[in-house]
Amino acid sequence: MRYDQDDRESSNVEDRRGQGGGGFQFPGGGLQIPIGGRGGFSITSLLIIGAVLLLFGINPLDVLLGTNGQIGMPQMPHSDRPSRSPSDIPGLPGSPQKQAAGDDSEAVFVKRVLADTEDVWNSVFKSFGRDYPDPPLVLYSGITRTACGAGQAAMGPFYCPLDQKVYIDLAFYDELKRKFNVSGDFAQAYVIAHEVGHHVQKQLGILDQVQKLKERADDEATANQIQVRTELQADCLAGVWANLNDQMKKRLQPGDVEDALNAASQIGDDMIQKKMTGRVVPDAFTHGSAAQRVRWFKAGLETGKMDACDTFNTSSP
Q1: Is residue 79, in this structure, part of any structural domain at all?
Q2: Is the predicted pLDDT of residue 77 greater than 50, yes or no?
Q3: 58: domain range?
Q4: Per-residue pLDDT at 283 exceeds 80
Q5: Tally of domains in the chain
Q6: Domain for residue 135, yes or no?
Q7: What digits encode the pLDDT tens for the residues 137-172?
Q8: For a 10 Å CB count at each end of the chain, is N or C smaller?
């Protein structure tokens, strides 16, 4: 993708990286937890607390073995995060030799992509007389608080419709490269554009309708199929964005589209299931097969029109 020093960076990015526990902090540095007696916690209560901590991926012993009987969330370790070279992100200004050590080129890239989504979708919504509220994007490490519950890096990038924010741990890009052979700056942009596509769905009332349909679903397989159509529509909207963004700003370079199509293919449910379990269970799909994700992304990319993204009124998505 073509970016240079003059390209706008979105100001709608909240950086929670380095905040121990991704934003889970007790005021005053700790919380006194008395054990037993009047006003204290029973053993049962402590077991419940321990279960909650384990749910968040935190070892209760790391918490309880503090000083002065205080309990505080431990700092999330950063040493396990894979290192990343700026040269892995083409399209950013300056050669690797000119980039200062320790610069935050990944975050800069994310901010520029988010700015492009803002410009495109503001223009689209304005064309049919609607306002488009720009979604905040949260950068975090490991775990963070969201209105939809605890967000964890293992979940991958996600959109929370309750607070209308996009969340991403940048280590996800390293996971894509290492586990799924997905690389390239446009592939990374596609990931962001997909989550922003969910924000577009929210503004159009689609996500609210989807939630009602899922609540009325007779079984989990039916609910999953509804979710698949929702995700495929977000893929298509990412394609629409890519088309319009290139028309507006001439961002695409040779190989970019191939990178995005490879990303869509490699993170299809069938591909992930094969890698993880060695078998494919279509009823458990939540995002769509590789072929479906590629097809719908291409539908948006080739037309640049939102009406090409009606995944809900087709016999088979």
Answers
A1: no
A2: no
A3: 26-71
A4: no
A5: 2
A6: yes
A7: 999 999 999 999 999 988 889 999 999 999 999 999
A8: C
